[in-house]
Specification:
The chain is mostly helical and about 200 residues long. Helices cover about 50% and strands about 0% of the residues. It contains ten helices and no strands. It has helices spanning about 5-20, 30-40, 45-50, 60-65, 85-95, 100-115, 125-140, 145-150, 160, 170-185. The radius of gyration is 19 Å and the shape is elongated.
């Protein structure tokens, strides 16, 4: 078994698959998997999938099917995206944990008037900004639009991306600015064979 850190693997996988790769490799499901399948750099495993498919939901099953309707992977893990908060700050400021989107936006506005920045995340490697964008776009604009945006069928200038909905506009714009900055830096170095950017379960 060969192991390599996550970001290095993402940067080098195109060359890796084009050379003499190992028999099995770990990769994202969804359209990132389909990208390599379309190029003939992954092998269908329909016979293996038939033996284990009963263990998976339809959502998982769809995530490993290529554009040619063959199966190219077996889901092995997934993980949630969540928000951590500091209980001591909430206690000191008298904040209540929000349970709705409206409550969350109201809390963010209150935090700003109190001189606090509501959200922060580490973005040294770029993908956290993309992941945040994924979650918002999926929730606000739906799966089909998001996949279309990631694969080029939808435009980044579409009003759904630039303005979103009235409910999520401020947070969405902030994340979009971070995402566009990341996307611009990647486009400068991306070759025509480079896999599209994505994150975790949002790619499926």
């Amino acid at each position: 078994m060969n192991t390599v850190d996550h970001n290095t693997f993402q940067d080098q996988i195109n060359n890796y698959l084009g050379a003499t790769p190992d028999d099995v490799f770990f990769w994202f499901s969804g359209y990132r998997m389909r990208f390599f399948a379309d190029k003939g750099l992954a092998t269908p495993i329909d016979d293996l999938w038939a033996k284990v498919s009963a263990n998976y939901t339809a959502g998982f099953a769809n995530s490993v099917v290529g554009n040619d309707k063959h199966v190219y992977g077996i889901p092995v893990d997934y993980y949630p995206w969540c928000i951590f908060y500091r209980k001591s700050v909430f206690s000191t400021k008298g904040y209540t944990v929000p349970t709705t989107w409206t409550d969350l936006l109201a809390l963010c506005a209150k935090m700003q008037t109190d001189g606090l920045t509501p959200f922060a995340f580490g973005d040294k490697d770029g993908w956290p900004a993309m992941g945040t964008f994924d979650i918002l776009n999926l929730r606000l604009n739906g799966y089909d639009f998001h996949v279309g945006l990631m694969t080029g069928a939808q435009k980044w200038t579409d009003p759904k991306v630039t303005t979103s909905s009235r409910r999520g506009r401020s947070s969405f714009r902030t994340t979009r600015r971070a995402m566009l900055a990341l996307r611009g830096s990647r486009l400068a170095t991306r070759s025509s064979a480079r896999p599209p950017a994505c994150t975790s379960s949002a790619c499926s």
